[in-house]
Amino acid sequence: FIIHIFFLAGTGVLAVGLWLRFDSRTKPLFEGVDSPSVFFTGVYLLIAAGGLMMVVGFLGCCGAIKESPCMLGLFFIFLLIIFAAEVAAGIWGLSNRDKVIEEVTEFYKQTFDNYKNTKQEALKETLRLIHFGLDCCGPTGSLFDAAKDICPKQEGLAILVTTIFGMIFSMMLCCAIKRSREFV
Q1: Minimal CA–CA distance to 114: which of 43, 31, 23, 35?
Q2: How far apart are CA 102 and CA 108, in angstroms?
């Protein structure tokens, strides 16, 4: 069951990344001379992470269905790598919290100023996504309160817990498959 959730989450992340990249409202952000590199990086990371999650979920599903210790072992190794990357990203984010807040605020202000001057639909959509994603409304709104909050969000913890359970269950299934083959 957890493997299916992982696969579906990967599909969702990939879909959001592709939507942000190819939607007619956000596509002009990629084509301008002064396009924000932060937006580029974020969208391409979403696409890569979603694709990786789908591949890992596929390995887990096929490994469980075919009862393949090799595929389940690969699934475990990929989950371990993803878990290490999540922990490293969390530590980096906490240790560079002030820099991240400063860069996000600067990106927001530049985008808002550009939108005020040009009224581009792509910039409006970007601002809407920032407001929705950070649960804020403007650079002096709850953005700073949310960004300075050192407590992790529950969604981040849920992803870590799901990854840990996936690793545990993949090893349990792998061991059960090996034991059942010894008795045959």
Answers
A1: 35
A2: 10
Q: How far apart are CA 19 and CA 27, in angstroms?
A: 9
What is the domain extent for residue 8? 1-153
Residue 70 lies in a domain: yes
Q: With respect to residue 88, please indicate whether it lies within any of the assigned structural domains.
A: yes
- DSSP character string of 57-107: HHHHHHHHHHT-HHHHHHHHHHHHHHHHHHHHHHHHHHHTHHHHHHHHHHH
Could you give the number of structural domains in the chain? 1
Tens digit of pLDDT for each residue in 32-82? 665 556 667 777 888 888 898 888 888 888 888 888 888 888 888 888 888
183 CB-near residues (< 8 Å, 6+ apart):
none
Per-residue DSSP letter, 136? -
3-state helix, strand, coil split of the chain in percent (to 5) is: 85, 0, 15
What separation, in Å, do the N-terminal and C-terminal C-alpha atoms of the chain show? 27
Predicted TM-score (pTM) of the model is 0.58
**103, part of any domain:** yes
Residue 175 and residue 169 in contact, taking contact as beta carbons nearer than 8 Å:
no
In a domain, 60, yes or no: yes
